[in-house]
Amino acid sequence: QVQLVESGGGLVKPGGSLRLSCAASGFTFSDYYMSWIRQAPGKGLEWVSFITGGGSVIYYADSVKGRFTISRDNAKNSLYLQMNSLRDEDTAVYYCVRDNGGGTYSAFDYWGQGTLVTVSS
Amino acid sequence: QSALTQPASVSGSPGQSITISCTGTSSDVGGYNYVSWYQQHPGKAPKLMICDVSNRPSGISDRFSGAKSGNTASLTISGLQAEDEADYYCSSYRSSSTLVVFGGGTKLTVL
């Protein structure tokens, strides 16, 4: 069965860096677009970044552009999010999500359990 | 402020039907049939309930249906059940550098 398992969250000071990882299993990872989506405590969902199956096309939300970098290693069935220059407002649960393959970019059929990133001094 | 507008809350009694609206613009909801709906129970990850405006993924009850008119999409839940009580989010593809936008979420209370 499809599984997405995030890791790497934790407490970091403003201006600091963190790298999130997502281990995928149960499907042919390289065939699927992937995204990171976050949810601040008690708030709604916010799409963060997207990467195609081969990694050649990448998009970012304006709120993280220039600070976050998405990448993937298809040989390791893994998705990453490098987060630099972290701000208080980046505090959230970060979900690794799979696009359903329909080509619409906004249908996410599998979600990880999420990893909490807390930015605080 | 979220990119897509949803009511903060809706409620209904068991067995009734409710509809949640999701209003965007011609650059997202109105311009493409790429609207999805997610259900999220407290402390859990969201679950895809509807994609491409009105398609139900495998395993999703036919009590859930989606539609769209102009710049507004809607999710209807018929035959409300206690387990439907959750937060619901809409999302859409957007033709800009911001690829995907979400609504602010709607809390459904089953009375």
Topology, pairings included?
The complex is a heterodimer of chains A (121) and B (111).
Chain A: E1 3-7, E2 10-12, E3 18-25, E4 34-39, E5 45-51, E6 58-60, E7 68-73, E8 78-83, E9 92-99, E10 108-111, E11 115-119
Chain B: E1 9-12, E2 18-23, E3 35-40, E4 47-50, E5 64-69, E6 72-77, E7 86-93, E8 100-102, E9 106-110
Parallel strand pairs in B: 1-9
Antiparallel strand pairs in B: 2-6, 3-4, 3-7, 5-6, 7-8, 7-9
Characteristic terms for this protein:
heterodimer, A: 121 residues, mainly beta, four-stranded antiparallel sheet, 50% strand, globular, B: 111 residues, six-stranded mixed sheet, three-stranded antiparallel sheet, 0% helix, 43% strand
Structural account:
The complex is a heterodimer of chains A (121) and B (111). Chain A is mainly beta. Chain A has strands spanning 3-7, 10-12, 18-25, 34-39, 45-51, 58-60, 68-73, 78-83, 92-99, 108-111, 115-119. In chain A, strands 2, 4, 5, 6, 9, 10 and 11 form a seven-stranded mixed β-sheet that branches. In chain A, a hairpin with an 8-residue loop joins strand 9 (92-99) and strand 10. The model of chain A has no long low-confidence stretch (mean pLDDT 96). By secondary structure, chain B is an all-beta fold. Chain B contains no helices and nine strands. In chain B, the strands form two sheets. In chain B, strands 1, 3, 4, 7, 8 and 9 form a six-stranded mixed β-sheet that branches. Chain B has a three-stranded antiparallel β-sheet with strand order 2-6-5, with no helix packed on it. Chain B is globular and about 40 Å long. The N and C termini of chain B lie far apart (28 Å). The model of chain B has no long low-confidence stretch (mean pLDDT 95). Classes of the chains: A mainly beta (121), B mainly beta (111). The interface between A and B is medium-sized, with 24 and 27 residues.
Concise account of the structure shown:
The complex is a heterodimer of chains A (121) and B (111). With 121 residues, chain A is mainly beta.
